[in-house]
Write a structure and sequence with these properties.
Elements: E1 2-4, H1 9-20, E2 24-29, H2 31-36, H3 39-49, E3 51-56, H4 64-73, E4 81-86, H5 88-100, E5 123-127, E6 139-144, E7 149-154, E8 162-165, H6 175-194, H7 200-222, H8 227-247, H9 251-262, H10 267-282, H11 287-297, H12 303-313, H13 330-335, H14 351-360
Parallel strand pairs: 1-8, 2-3, 2-4, 4-5, 5-8
Antiparallel strand pairs: 6-7
């Protein structure tokens, strides 16, 4: 069940806990989101009624090393429910803890399960950013630092049982987080719209979300305290998550994921770096859908210029050189591309096409 509330997080969370009756709760938060909100107050109240363990995620991405460290230090603990309070990385990390806590021994080095899974721990996801949509997806990204590799783990076992979206929690986000997570939402709806798995239903959600982003992302940037704009963007992020859960994403996510294993870059920023080149190549494969999507933005110009002008408007116009990447890194990126690339509108994707996108993104 998903709820979009405004200022009612505490009361609704209490209702869920009253229904679930957990004896032991694990609360996973980010360092910044927890400090910047008033969450500490009502989470401390929860700890008075339930056996509660707090864990503040250290790394900004879901690193395998941190997950293993957590599992080792909490090996004797048993949790009935996990509350994931934070951005997409916190929710992804929580999904992986929920999955691995009782199942780490059956996973291979590529994080594929080699046996039937034991029960995973139910998750209550409470996003403090409007972007990833991880609260309503059955996927999580894990980073293996030693191998400089990012992989996606997907399955119904890590789908959150409850998601509570309170737009007021996003007000404390700085501008760079607001716009980068906002672009993440944009990429989710764009890619699900042109993906081969797209459907009439996901198309309608994507069109609705784009109308919201077009109007309200710039308003969030103009006035951080605009609660209506924050509420709309939280809803758009939710729609984006639903689109991803049903239609998935396209090549930019695979390329950014590979790139992010080598160079530490925010997910939304990494996507923006690759978008213009990918768009130019992908456009001829689904002209009608690309045009229909871009027409919603209501910006004059050629298809390429419409996208470029939109990205400049929201301050997301970047190059690979801006994050310290070198052309010598491209082979490393390509070697780490994994996941489904057949969902992209481009037919017959090969390493040379990937190389072309990376090169054009400098």
């Amino acid at each position: 069940m998903n709820k979009i509330l405004k200022g009612e997080l505490e009361s609704y969370l209490k209702k869920i806990l009253s229904k679930e009756k957990p004896k032991s709760i694990l609360i996973i938060t980010g360092k910044n989101s927890y400090k910047k909100s008033e969450a500490e107050v009502f989470f401390n109240q929860i700890s008075l009624k339930h056996t509660t363990t707090f864990y503040r995620k250290v790394e900004k991405n879901p690193y395998y090393t941190e997950i293993l460290s957590f599992l080792k230090s909490h090996e004797e603990y048993s949790f009935d429910i996990i509350i994931a309070y934070g951005g997409g990385a916190v929710i992804d990390f929580s999904k992986l803890v929920a999955l691995f806590k009782n199942n780490i021994s059956v996973f291979t080095t590529d994080f594929q399960s080699s046996d039937d899974l034991l029960d995973t721990i139910p998750i209550i996801a409470i996003p403090t950013t409007a972007g990833s949509g991880s609260e309503v997806t059955k996927g999580s990204i894990i980073t293996d630092v030693k191998r400089k590799l990012k992989l996606g783990i997907r399955g119904d076992d890590i789908f959150p049982k409850e998601a509570i979206i309170d737009p007021e929690l996003t007000i404390s986000c700085p501008e760079n987080v607001t716009v980068q997570t906002g672009f993440d939402t944009f990429s989710h709806i764009f890619e699900s719209y042109v993906a081969k798995k797209s459907s009439i239903i996901t198309d309608r959600y994507a069109e609705e979300a784009l109308l919201i982003i077009k109007e309200f992302l710039p308003k969030c940037l103009a006035n951080r305290l605009d609660i209506k704009a924050r509420e709309k963007m939280s809803y758009a992020a939710l729609l984006g998550g639903v689109c991803v859960a049903n239609a998935s994403t396209c090549l930019p996510h695979r390329l950014q994921q590979a790139m992010g294993g080598v160079i530490d870059v925010a997910h939304g920023k990494g996507l923006a770096i690759l978008y213009k080149s990918w768009f130019k190549i992908a456009y001829p494969f689904k002209i009608n859908k690309f045009d229909k999507f871009l027409n919603i933005l209501d910006i004059d110009g050629t298809p390429n210029s419409v996208l470029e002008n939109f990205m400049k408007k929201i301050k997301m116009d970047f190059k690979l050189s801006d994050i310290g990447a070198k052309k010598s890194n491209i082979d490393q990126f390509i070697d780490r591309v994994n996941g489904n690339i057949d969902n992209d509108p481009i037919d017959n994707i090969d390493t040379e096409l990937m190389r072309k996108i990376y090169l054009e993104s400098f």
